[in-house]
Each structure stands twice: as C-alpha cells, then as structure tokens.
Design brief:
Elements lengths: L2 E6 L2 E6 L10 H15 L6 E6 L4 E3 L4 H4 L5 H19 L5 E5 L2 E3 L1 H8 L2 E5 L3 E3 L13 H8 L3 H10 L3 E2 H7 L4 E3 L3 H9 L7 H17 L2 H16 L2 H14 L1
Parallel strand pairs: 2-3, 3-5, 4-6, 5-7, 6-8, 7-10
Antiparallel strand pairs: 1-2, 8-9
Length: about 250
C-alpha cells in the first residue's frame, strides 16, 4: 500500500509510504489522504492530525511525474490538480491543528502539502522548496494560496515561490515557514510538539482552530486556490512544461 494511516495517542498520522519513489504522490496516495481526512473530520476526540513520509530521505517529492506526465492538455491536467487541491483544502479545514512532520526533503507538491498544514516541523537535514518554476509551471495544488494566506511576510512568500529553489532547514526556520526544527527521530519530535495539547480540552483546541479558519476564509482562500489551479492547468499544456519534464525525467535515467 502506498500510504498508512494510524492513530497515535490523541492524534492521527497519515504517512506517504513510497520511499522508492521519494514518497511522490500518485492516485492511490491522493485517495488515501482524502479518506483519512474524511475519517479525521468525524472523530471528535482528536487533538491533532499529522502528515509525514516513510523513510528518512523524503517527506514528499511532489507529484509522481511518471504517472502525471501522461497528462498533456489543460483539460487533462485540471481534474488531477483540482482533486488534490480540494483534498489539501479539506485537510487544512480540519477542526484540529494539522502538522507536517517533515522528516526529509519536501519539494514541489510536497512543499504544497506541508504549506496546507498549520505547523511545519522540519528535520535539520531536510531541504524544502517550491521548485515548480523549474518545470515551467506554477504550484497547482493550492500551495501558493495557502502560503500567501498564512505567511507573515508577503515578500518572503513571493520570493520563495518565484525563486523556485530549495532552502535548508535553518533558512526555513529563520523565514518563519518552518515552525521549528528537530534533530532527533520524527516520532520523538512529534510527541514533544503535541505534548502541550494533551492538557487542553479538545473543545478549546477546536475553538481556536475555528478562529484561524475564519481568518483564512475572510481572505478568500478557496477562491484563490481555484484561480491558482486554473493558472497551473493553463501552463501545464504549454510546450515549455513538457520539454522541462522530459529533460528532468531523462536526467533521472
């Protein structure tokens, strides 16, 4: 199975389990995350929901190009982009804090998954970045919209997006993108981070999360995401994108 979902203490953890593909997202992972989000949304005892990757090399390397490169036109790409963008929006709207446990590199769509979360815990060796620009497309799963809606500095957010490069953990912490770093095992870091939630009644945690969601909705987050998806789909069918992906896949070979 390409993913795992289990309860851990008072929380739930979704794990992308494709280490041989650097935890790239395929259709099975999408469906698994969608089902996990739906289940978590109906569990009133939860205090948090976390997302991580199997193994120590990657949190998520984005979409699986070996699968998604078959999509050539905007009409073909749009349903995939819309599906994942909707899943991440629903995940971000969970009534409890959502945590990205970034145990390894998070690039492209992996960075978008992390940005849809409320908190980002980053291992000291991890590198993260919105590298979509190197493939001649924009973020297409809502990553830019989530980032701009949550970032303390629009200038820092815009620079991260337009530079299309990876950033070391220290830089991510300094910019505020990462909530905190860790050097020990991911499970230990997660337990340490959520420990303060254990003494707080779930109703209080959910009330504060609802306040954060009201702020994002007031900023028109969903509308921003729809426009972002449409723009990515438009660029997806351009020859520049297909050439860039072809060069990338040939380089990997």
């Amino acid at each position: 199975m390409a993913f795992g979902f289990n309860y851990r203490g008072t929380g739930a953890v979704f794990t992308i389990d494709r280490p041989e593909k650097r935890n790239a997202v395929n259709g099975e992972v999408m469906d698994g995350l969608s089902a996990a989000v739906e289940e978590a949304a109906g569990n009133n005892s939860l205090r948090y929901f976390a997302v991580t990757g199997a193994g120590g090399a990657a949190f998520c390397s984005g979409g699986d190009l070996s699968e998604f490169h078959r999509l050539k036109t905007a009409e073909e790409a749009a349903p995939m982009l819309e599906k994942m963008a909707d899943i991440l929006l629903r995940m971000s709207r969970l009534p409890v804090p959502v945590i990205a446990l970034i145990n390894g590199h998070a690039v492209g769509g992996g960075c978008e998954i992390a940005t849809a979360c409320d908190y980002r815990l980053v291992h000291e060796t991890a590198r993260c970045g919105y590298i979509q620009g190197t493939l001649a497309i924009t973020t297409g799963w809502g990553g830019a919209s989530h980032l701009l809606a949550k970032a303390g500095s629009e200038a820092i957010a815009l620079r991260m997006l337009t530079e299309s490069r990876v950033h070391p953990a220290g830089e991510l912490i300094k910019s505020g993108w990462a909530t905190e770093g860790f050097a020990d095992e991911p499970d230990v870091a997660l337990d340490r981070f959520v420990a303060p939630l254990e003494r707080i009644h779930p109703s209080v945690i959910r009330a504060y999360k609802a306040a954060a969601l009201r702020k994002r909705e007031a900023a028109g987050l969903e509308e921003m995401i729809r426009a972002e998806v449409a723009e990515c789909a438009r660029l997806w069918e351009a020859e520049a994108h297909h050439e860039a992906v072809g060069l990338f896949l040939n380089k990997k070979k």
